[in-house]
Amino acid sequence: MAKLVGVDKWMFFTTLLLVVAGLVMVFSASAVVAQERFNSPYTFVGKQSLWALAGVLIMLVLMHVDYTVYNSPRFIYPALCVTTLLLVLVFFFPSSHNTHRWIHFGPFTLQPSEIAKPALILFLAWFLSTRLDLMRDWKHTLLRAAVMPVVFILLIVKQPDLGTALVLCGVTAMMLLLAGMEWKYLGFGALAALPGLAALLFMVAWRRQRMLVFLNPESDPQGAGFHINQSLIAVGTGGLTGRGYMEGVQKLFYLPEAHTDFIFANIAEELGFIGAIAIVVLFIVFGVRGLRATFRSQDPFARLAAFGITTTILLQAFFNISVVLSLVPTKGIPLPLISFGGTSIFCTLASIGILLNITKKAD
C-alpha cells in the first residue's frame, strides 16, 4: 500500500509560477487591444485573473479530495453524459470566428472541449485500470475503450477544432500503450484514421492553404501565412534578452491572437530567448514531476490518470510552442496556464488538483 506523503511541492509551485507568468504576459499582450476595443487595458487580464483565482481555489480543493472518488461508474458515467451534452450544445449557439466552440452565458463563455480533456482521461483511467490483463482483447477492451474518445473527437472536429482533437488522439493512444496495448494496434488505428485526417487537411480549403504555407511561409505573407510570419518576426526580434516587458511591437495589431494562441511569440519578443526558455523549463519541471508521480503510483487508476493529465498538458505546450516556431502547421491550441482562456485555465488547474492528490500517495 502506498504511503501518504505531502503533495509534490515542486509541481505545486511550478504551477503557480506558470499561472502568474501567464497573467503577466496576458496583460502585456492584450492591453493595447483591450484599450482599443473596450476602452480599458485591463479587460482581458481582469477576466483571466478571475478564472485563474477560481482555478487555483478548485485546485486547492481537489488536491485534498481522495482521487479514488473518480474511480467509479457513479462519477464516470455522469461526467461522460454531461460532457457529451455540452459538446452537442455548442452547435445550438451562434458561431464565433466561423466555429462552434463556446457556450455563452451572458458575459461568460464556456468551452466544452476543455472539459472533454479531463473527462476523457478519467474515463480511460477507470476503464483500463480494471482490464490491464485483457489488453490483447481488441474486441471487448480496445474497441470499447475507443468509443468515447471517438465520440468526443468527432464532435470536436465538427466544431471545427482539429488541434484539440489531435491532442485527444495523442493522449488516448499513449494511455492505451501505458496500459499494455500492443504497438501493432496503434499502427492499425493510425492507418484507419489516416484517410480521414488527410481529407480534413487537404480537402478543406483553408487547412490545405495552411499546409502549403507551412512548407513555404513566404508564399502568402499577407494571407494564410500572415500569422506564422508575424510570429517568426516576433521571435526573431526578441534576441537573447528581448525588447523588454510591455515593449513588444508585434502585438500592436500585427500578430493576431497575441494573448491567446500566439502568446509565446510575445514572450519571446519581450523577454527574449532567456524568458522563452524559462517558460519551457517550467513545463519540463512540471512534466518530470508528473511522470515521477505516474511511475511511483502503485494504483493502476492513479498511474493512468496521472500520466493522462501530465501528457495532455505537455502535448498542448509542445504543439503551441511548435506552431509559434513554425515547426508544425498552424493550429488553434492554447499554451496551458499561460494563454488567455477562462475554461482552459480553470480545467487545467482542476486537473492539476487531481494530479497533486495522486502525488500524496506516490511512493
Quick gist of this model?
The protein has helices at residues 9-38, 43-62, 73-89, 112-129, 138-158, 162-179, 183-202, 205-215, 226-238, 263-296, 300-324, 342-359; strands at 103-105, 108-110.
Provide a descriptive summary of the structure in words.
- By secondary structure, the protein is mainly α.
- The protein has one domain.
- Helix content is 67%, strand content 2%.
- It has a two-stranded antiparallel sheet with strand order 1-2.
- Helix 1 packs antiparallel against helix 10, helix 3 packs antiparallel against helix 4 and helix 11 packs antiparallel against helix 12.
- It is globular and about 55 Å long.
- It starts with 8 loop residues before the first helix and ends with a helix.
